[in-house]
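Hi V.,

You were right to ask for the full record rather than a summary. Here it is.
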Amino acid sequence: MQRLVVLLPVLNEALGLQWVLERIPYEALQANGYETTVLVMDGHSTDQSPSVAASFGVLFIDQDEHGKGSAIRHGFREAVNLNADVVVMLDADGTYNPTEMVRLLNGLTKHEVVIGDRLNGDIAPDAMTRTNYVGNHMLTWFASALYGSASNDVCSGYWAFSASAIERLKLNSVSFEIEAEMFASMVHEHVPFAYVPISYRARLGEAKLGSTADGWNILRKLVTRRLFPTPLM
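Predicted structure:
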């Protein structure tokens, strides 16, 4: 059996977290050879997220610093400490279907990273505003052109990693630019990756991603990491 860590970054996501935890496909994962540990990285939630995690008996850790990027980087360190062979990362807001992680994991037989592709998948009509939809396509196109490597969805929050890929990624993102930086680092470090179409639905609870400000931060991170392959700490 391989050790799988399912990494869920959380900040006041009680509704989404419960929805996700109810749908972790433990039986299908076991049938595919995975022993699964769910790791919730909490950004100091003030809602019922801690009690939801406790009711499901999953690991719950307060992250070192605020921000999604900080949660993911801290979560990677915790996964290494858990001797993870593979890691699946997805947002705990109900936008991603946990049962589809098996399809991402199947792709790790040929690649070191597999990314869920929303833009060529099944997007529910109310899942993205028009601004977010256009912005995601523009950022993805820009990333592909800037790095000379095709990206299907540079802002996707659904990823599967081999342990060796995590060790090779060089990251310093604090917030929502983390996915763009992971793409940049994969290209720089020559980590083989692929995309799998996925479904995407409307989030549960209040949105935290700001369309314009976060979009500019993502764009700036793409440009910065193109100029500096090793992140400035």
